[in-house]
Amino acid sequence: MAVRKKGRRKITVDENEYIWYVSQDDESPYYLLSIVSENKDYVLTCPLKTEIPYLISKGKLFKTEKSDGTWHRYELPFDIPEIITPLFVAKVILWATQKGEAVLLKRKDGHSFPV
Fold first, then answer.
1. Does pTM top 0.85 for this prediction?
2. Residue 15, C-beta contacts closer than 8 angstroms, at least 6 positions apart
3. pLDDT (tens digit, 9 = 90+) per residue, 10-22?
4. Residue 98, burial from CB neighbour count under 10 angstroms (0-12, 13-18, 19+)
């Protein structure tokens, strides 16, 4: 099944096509930047205006490695701007899709966040 494109923006990064959009979260006060690869291997959500900038990985891959199928929150190594631009979206995609280290966010009690 293809990714819904109506009302959403396209971006090509490293010859791969992604769809991205910003919407309000139904379950929190946050606005979310959502990014989905055309093949749905990468499904990324970035809550905006949080105390600590982080990204939620919900897809099959993260940092070129297979995911275990659960949501994981990773600290972004850069700040989120006030206005989301295609340049920032490309920066997030490059960070999430290239090999490298990522800091998994933990709750204050030391456990991983639940799904």
1. yes
2. none
3. 999 999 999 999 9
4. exposed
